[in-house]
Amino acid sequence: MNVQAQALKAEQLRKLHSGPKMLVLPNAWDVASARIVEELGFPAIATTSAGIAATLGYPDGQKISRDEMLGVVARIAKAVRVPVTADVEAGYGVTVDDMTQTVKAVVAAGAVGINLEDVTSSDESSQVDLALQLEKIRAIRKATESLGVPLVLNARTDIYLIPIGPPESRFERTVERLRAYREAGADCLFAPGLRDAETIAKLVRALNGPLNILITTGAPTLRELEEMGVARASAGSGVMRATLGLTRRIAKEMIEAGTYTAMLDGAVPFAEMSELLAREEP
User: How far apart are CA 62 and CA 154, in angstroms?
Assistant: First the structure.
């Protein structure tokens, strides 16, 4: 993909965050899942870092290397026509220079957006200092503009997800971080782990930019989120984990009942799968 075409896709993705409809992203983890999502009419593809890592045998939490992660992202971006935004966890490094190298690799992979976390592991002690995170975001913005592909940056805080710190201050700390990320150059603001409808609506009003919510157990419906003013809703690793659940049910039925009904129910026909993957790349 040439720089001009990639820059146009970045702008296309950026505009999807300003309505009139909420951007819904059932995250993909390989070419087949990405093409299924695209064929159903979704205007963009988001990758799931946990999903991609799992398919390559890694647990979540930056255990996979940058090259392995972006190798899959590149295959997805090459296979679909719509914009692709890549989950790059915390950027695969701790320094500003690491962020710059990651962004260059994302652009080279053909993606036009990224998710950036503010924790480097699943422990609350790993939360990146706010000043350093802002420096990283500014460096990412500067690097992408110099490359001619202004990536759409979805800046994430894991205060509710891990969770981090005392419950009574989580909302204020989330607002503080996300507002700062927006001022530093983030296009969208991500607060995974937040499920309470009243708090989500309050956060929408408190922020100065589009809000991304992770759809999961206990979260409002997509229609409810859209009515609250949420700009983007993503599934994270949810769809991939649902396929693992189906795999478990199929295998359990086979070993316990000697039948395989679950394998046949709703399966994509072999010919359709072959046709989907045989389609010429854009």
Answer: 18
User: What is the residue-averaged pLDDT of the chain?
Assistant: 96
Going through the chain in order, the beta strands assigned E by DSSP cover 23-25, 45-46, 84-87, 113-116, 152-156, 188-190, 211-214, 232-234
Map residue 87 onto helix, strand or coil: strand
List, in order of start, the domains of the chain with CATH numbers: 3-236 (3.20.20.60)
Q: What is the distance between the alpha carbons of residues 129 and 80, in angstroms, rounded to a whole number?
A: 37
Print burial letters for 76-107: b (CB count within 10 Å at least 16), e (below 16).
bbebbebbbbbbbbbbbbeebebbbebbebbb
Alpha-carbon span 98 to 252, nearest angstrom: 44
Q: Report DSSP state, residue 86.
A: E
Cβ count near 235 (within 10 Å): 20
Residue with tokens 């695969």: 92
Please give the backbone phi and psi of residue 138, each rounded to the nearest 5 degrees, phi first: -65, -40
pLDDT reported for residue 108: 97
The values of phi and psi at residue 269, to 5°, are: -55, 145
CA distance 239 to 236: 7
Cα of first residue to Cα of last residue in the chain, in angstroms, is 9
pTM (predicted TM-score)? 0.96
pLDDT at residue 19 is higher than 90:
no
